Fold each of these.
Amino acid sequence: MTGSWMMNVVVGLFSLLALTGLFFFVLTRGALLVRGLSSAQNSAKSHVYPLYSNMRLIKLVDFQPVIAAILLFQYSTLVSKIVAGLGERNLKNKKVLVTSCAFGNVIPRVVEAAVQAGAEQVVIADIIGNELEHARGKLGQFEGRITYVEDNATAMTCQPGLADANIMFFLLHELPHPLKIKALSEAGRMLAPGGKLYLAEFHRPELPVLRLLSWAYFKVFEPFGLALWDSHDPVNCLTEMGGWTCERSTYFFGNFQVITATKH
Ligand SMILES: C[S@@+](CC[C@H](N)C(=O)[O-])C[C@H]1O[C@@H](n2cnc3c(N)ncnc32)[C@H](O)[C@@H]1O
């Protein structure tokens, strides 16, 4: 009796996990595969998952515990590192740029830190209008200090050198490889000399078992992400570009990283 009850629990949990995986696959990699077969593949937005463009899906998924779980409960630690970096700066009369929205409370926390550090304005740029609208819904108390811009991180139309801090939170791993380099280059172009780029991303885990699991995750869900481990390691890319000094902190057995890159 106890055995069959246990079995039901195991089967139930496994089914839940499989269904969750299927849900995310369909709305991320699966959609990109289907899109790749159609003519829509050449648009600047064609790498963006439906999860980020459909307002109902955005609202359905943007639930802090789910988002924290996806980042193995390191979300808050990673955001805190960026917030602490902003807190050390004097951003009085300066502008802060957030290059692309993200789920969870990263944007409110970053905006609050920027405003407390004296920033006169925060510019939030995203290629998807619905993401900007969704972010606005979290930022009511900062209305008037924020400008929302529909812009492409890989070909920004904002004024070059506008920002003293630029935050890029888990964008790179979703971009095709040549666009990763463009996004980093554009991030630098948007910064004033001495400005800092705060970049949170996945990193090659030190623990072999975690590396294997992480590798499988990328292979199934986020095929553009694995290159961050080697050929498109952001610190190497920025160093090769020149004009940057980079500091990297890693988290959770090396599975995540926050890079603070200062533009010369
Ligand atoms: C930063 S990434 C994902 C972050 C992470 N997975 C999370 O939400 O916790 C998602 C955002 O990047 C935006 N995005 C994707 N490609 C972009 C691009 N080329 N330029 C600007 N925003 C982009 C999407 O519209 C979406 O708002």
Amino acid sequence: MKYDFDSIIDRIETRSTKWLKFDDPNILPMWVADMDFQCPPEVTEAIKKRVDQGIFGYTERPAELTSLLQKRLVDKSGWEIDPEWVTWMPGVVVGLNVACRTALSPGDMVMTPSPIYRPFVYASDNMNRGRLNTDLKNVEGRLELDYESIEQLMSEEIKMFFFCNPHNPGGTVFNQEEIKKLVDICEKNQTIICADEIHSDLIFEPGRKHLHLAQTNEYALNNSITLLSPTKTFNMQGLPCGAAIIPNPELRQEFRRNMRGIAAHIGVFAYTAAEAAYKYGEPWYQELMQYLGENRKLLKEEISKIEGLSLYGPEATYLAWIDCSKTGLDDPSDFFINAGVGVHRGEWFGDSQFVRLNFGCPRSRLEEALSRIKKAFSQRN
Ligand SMILES: Cc1ncc(COP(=O)(O)O)c(C=O)c1O
């Protein structure tokens, strides 16, 4: 490997959100979705160069950024976009909130799968819009949409569907047939779909391409807001920069109007990082996926040996959604944390019988976490 994913890097000094979460320094933080790896060195180099200029005033988007995204989407998924469709924002969560403001009037509702990354829930609350949950079905560990329930719950008030693909938590990569079924229901009800596809580069199956919801058909193209970002792929979450891709001109105009003065400027370094990542990050990303794939394999093997725990996939993301419902534990998250493994609490996503474990870390750290988990469960029996 050309790039180093094995080194242990102290992150406390940098005020890392992940590493300051737990007061007890003996707990390994494995919660929020950032990885304990340095980002592509080419990104760091580009930032260093920009630092040397010493002037950090208001900054326009790098001239090539949109065309780099455009090229990436064609290369990775065969999706041909018009650069006009793209609106850059300081992060994808901003996009979730602006989408609620744009697609929903007071009294309207968004349908939101559950469990889900909590900011989806906050977005409709923040904007004083209604929300109706549709529970995902757990099909042998794979979280799937429940189309019957979605159809039943659909009504005139539901003006938007929040789709997360790959889904967080659980890492389901929805296939063409599944996406089409959802699009058909939304078309029948004339519902807009906001598709958060931030994790779409992190699919494990070799050769499998992510299918953007907007690629499905004309309805999906003209009634969707697709949210993407380089920050998860290249591990630079502290440099927020994301894109909303909205082919429909009226919807796009409304979205931009709703962002005005509310969404902050994208930072100088975030722009520099995004451009460098798209331009030079591919070799690093290819090795990252290999490394993560090996971590995932190890995690699955070891978790399967522990009675009561089960883990499906994940088909994408470095976030394992571990089912603890057969352990008999009242609070599985507490159990893991007391064992020294700082998981993300399942209830934050909507299911307290699960924990979410981030395996985007050096192998030795994952091994240490697994040995702590095994020890805690063996001592319990
Ligand atoms: C599905 C999903 N959307 C958005 C985000 C965060 O996006 P951003 O940091 O660009 O606001 C995350 C982070 O974990 C996520 O999992």
